[in-house]
Amino acid sequence: MLRFLKAMRKYVSKWAYLACAIDTEGTITIHKILYKQRLKPTFSPVIMIVNTDLKWLQFLVKDFQLNGSIHTRKKTPKHKIVYCLTLSKLQQIIPKIRPYIKIKREQLKLIQSLLTINNEIMFGSGACPELFRKQTALYEQCKKLNKRGTDDEV
Asked: How far is CA 123 from CA 60, 115, 117, 134, in A?
């Protein structure tokens, strides 16, 4: 499989390949983190790719020089072991994959907005109620986009 991927590089941008992996095998979401010592939650953008092939995920990390971590999800008797690659330094990755993301384009726009707000909080005006409301709204929108089906379906 890896030989096929390396041969395919002649015809496709490597970032298009990563975007396709994220669109099909991945998740683009916003995590809400609650700390006991803080009054308000922290919102963190996340891109992860989940697969049963550890070598493929290791290939992605090495070939794309990605910053991230691979961890194993709990194995159940009915399922295979699943590996999860969680990407970090998203501000460097997003501009390269943005033109190629098709399915999860809306989620990508939301985490870009969240990164802008987080930068404004850290390096600009600091935390204020207006920015917190924007973060919460982005979180809720992303949650709605990532929801699988609805309770109304038969």
From this structure: 32, 12, 10, 17
The CATH homologous superfamily to which domain 2-146 belongs is Homing endonucleases (3.10.28.10)
Alpha-carbon distance 25 to 89, whole Å? 19
pLDDT tens profile 81-128? 899 999 988 989 999 999 999 999 999 999 999 999 988 888 877 778
Residue entry with tokens 């975007």: 19
pLDDT in tens, 18-73: 999 999 999 999 999 888 777 778 899 999 999 999 999 998 898 888 888 999 98
Work out whether strand 82-87 and strand 68-73 pair parallel, antiparallel, or are unpaired: antiparallel
Helix (H/G/I), strand (E/B), else coil: 81: coil
Give long-range contacts, CB 8 A cutoff, 24+ apart: 60-63.
60/18, 60/21, 60/85, 61/85, 63/14
In sequence order, the 6+-apart residues with CB closer than 8 A to the CB of 28 are: 22, 46, 47, 104, 107, 108, 111, 142, 146
